[in-house]
Amino acid sequence: MKLTIQKLTSLSAQDLIDLAKIWPAQTESDWQASLQNNRALFAAVFNERILGAVKITLNGNQGELHDLLVRDVTRRRGVGLYLMEDLQAQLPQVRSWTMKADNDAVTAAFMQACGFVREEDVWKKT
Question: Residue 113 and residue 59: Cα distance in Å, rounded?
Fold first, then answer.
């Protein structure tokens, strides 16, 4: 099967299991909140299993990324990059992307590979 990027609109029992593997410190209510109002939850799915996900807050033509993560066993295989590229293609109205920056070197290399530039404590892409 092919890796697909899906905007989740509801969460199945299997989705909840998979999201718990990605974000073990979060709860179902955290994920449900990401499906409402000006928020979105995108997932990288392979064989009906979520391998990576990211939450997005949308504000007009601006998108803010939160909790971008790929499961440990799946990293370094292009899942995160494909997730980032495809979600941007699915949201063409978003012209400016941001994500809060941390001091993790792996995250920095990944965000740069995705075309983001760090400006103080924020990754930006326009």
Answer: 25
